[in-house]
Amino acid sequence: MYCLFCHQLIEHGLSWQTILPKLDPICPNCAQLLAPIHLPTCDYCGRDDHISCLDCKRWRPSQLLCYNRSVFRYNTFLKEVIARWKFRGDYQLYALFVHSFQARFNQYFSELPKHTWLVPIPLSEKRLAHRSFNQAEALASLLPRTTVPLLKRLEGEKQSKKTRKHRLAMRNPFLYQGSQEDVDFAQPIVLIDDIYTTGTTIHHAAQRLRAAGHQKVYSFTLAR
């Protein structure tokens, strides 16, 4: 087996298996560059450092989200991995996180019922056509829950091009497209995305879901 990121041969049986659960296709050197979030210090957004959560002060009073949890810190290495995955079309890189993503989901959301729905953050039609895949849907496909496309995204500029100030000020880009007849508004929903940065995207999505009548909305992302 070769590392999907650096393409070096992976020799099994090394102690690097303690870093990530099971055998993800990532070598020891690359695995050590990841920064897993083991014990979140913020019970709302899921970050694990001691920097004041200014974003949480903004979002927590809205009560749109029960809480967010993430797998890794969004450090320099993970930023490069996600850039290659999302923007350079290296789709297979999502396999680097299969077991880690599954293990953390089971850890953080084990108390939610089996019928909990996953709602991947959607791309606009233009962005999806350009990229040919939705990274949030790829992550959701790794989890043992039903994925439901309750949201539609309007056209808009890429989030990666926006400053923090612009992200916080942006209008809600989502529309709710659930069917009133087919939806159980009491069952929990977990929003799935690749990165939680300012929380704007997640909370805009949660806003649409809560306005439609969904009572409990959580979120789970690869990076924080």
Report on this model:
By secondary structure, this protein is of the alpha/beta class. The chain folds into two domains: about 1-30, no CATH class; about 35-224, Rossmann fold, CATH 3.40.50. It has eight helices and seven strands, in the order ααβααβααββαββαβ. The longest helix has 13 residues, at about 200-210. The model has no long low-confidence stretch (mean pLDDT about 85).
Characteristic terms for this protein:
224 residues; alpha/beta; Rossmann fold; five-stranded parallel β-sheet; two-stranded antiparallel sheet; 8 helices; 7 strands; 29% helix; globular
User: Would you identify the CATH architecture of the largest domain?
Assistant: 3-Layer(aba) Sandwich
Mean pLDDT, as a whole number?
A: 87
**SS field, number of helical segments:** 8
Strand order of the largest sheet: 1-7-6-2-3
Shape: globular
Rg value: 17 Å
Helix content: 25-40%
Q: Give me the CATH fold name of the largest domain.
A: Rossmann fold
* Residue runs with pLDDT of under 50 for 5 or more positions: none
Strand content: 5-15%
The CA-CA distance between the termini, in Å, is: 29 Å
Main beta-sheet strand count, sense and barrel state: 5 strands, parallel
Run of helices and strands: HHEHHEHHEEHEEHE
What is the CATH domain class of the largest domain?
A: Alpha Beta
Structural class: alpha/beta
Count of strand segments: 7
Integer tally of domains? 2
